[in-house]
Specification:
It is built from 3 helices and 3 strands, in the order E-E-E-H-H-H. The chain has about 170 residues and is α+β, with helices and mostly antiparallel strands. The longest helix is centred in the middle third of the chain and has 49 residues.
C-alpha cells in the first residue's frame, strides 16, 4: 500500500495531514516477516494544493468579471448615451421652445445621465484596473460647475421635503 492520505491528531490536539506507505519486509526466502510503515507529514503540500485551487477559482472569477463588466457597461451605456443625446436636443430647443421649469428638468436629466454614464465608466475602469489594463487619465474639473450640478440635482427633491439647498461662496 502506498500513498494513503489521512488526517491525524498530534499530541497537542492539532490536525496533521499525512501520507502512509506500508511495505512488506521479506527475508531471504521471500517470506513476509514484518511491515515497514512510513508516515510523512504532507500538511504543507495539502496547503499548497488548497492555495492553488483557490488561485484557480479566483482566476476564473476575475476572468468572468472582466468579460461581464464590458457587457454591462455597453448595456447601460447605450441607453444612457441616448438619454444624453435626446436631452441635448431638448436643451437646444430643436423640437420646440421649453418653459423655465422644462429647461430645469432637461438640465437635471442631462446632468444625471452624464453622472450615471461616468459611474458606468468608473465600474468598467475598476474592472480594467483589476486586470492591469487601465490607463490613468488625469484631467481638470471645474469645482464650481460640479457643485452647481450637485445642488441642481438635489434642489427639487429638497424643496419637496421642505428643505433648502444653498450654495455658499
Amino acid at each position: 500500500m502506498s500513498g494513503i492520505e489521512s488526517v491525524h491528531k498530534k499530541k497537542d490536539g492539532s490536525n496533521i495531514d499525512v501520507s502512509v506507505t506500508v511495505s512488506p519486509l521479506k527475508n531471504t526466502g521471500n517470506m513476509t516477516v514484518g511491515l515497514s510503515v512510513v508516515i510523512r507529514d504532507i500538511t504543507d503540500h495539502k496547503r499548497a494544493e488548497e492555495i492553488e485551487d483557490e488561485n484557480m477559482r479566483l482566476a476564473i472569477s476575475i476572468k468572468a468579471k472582466s468579460e461581464l463588466l464590458p457587457a454591462i457597461s455597453h448595456d447601460l451605456g447605450t441607453p444612457l448615451n441616448a438619454m444624453i443625446g435626446f436631452s441635448e436636443l431638448l436643451k437646444q430647443e430643436i423640437p420646440g421652445k421649453l418653459n423655465e421649469k422644462q429647461k430645469q428638468y432637461v438640465d437635471n436629466i442631462l446632468a444625471s445621465s452624464k453622472r450615471m454614464l461616468d459611474i458606468v465608466n468608473d465600474i468598467l475602469d475598476l474592472g480594467k484596473a483589476e486586470t492591469g489594463r487601465i490607463e490613468l487619465n488625469i484631467e481638470k474639473v471645474s469645482v464650481p460647475e460640479t457643485i452647481y450640478e450637485i445642488v441642481s440635482l438635489f434642489r427639487e427633491s429638497a424643496t419637496k421635503r421642505k428643505c433648502a439647498v444653498q450654495k455658499e461662496t
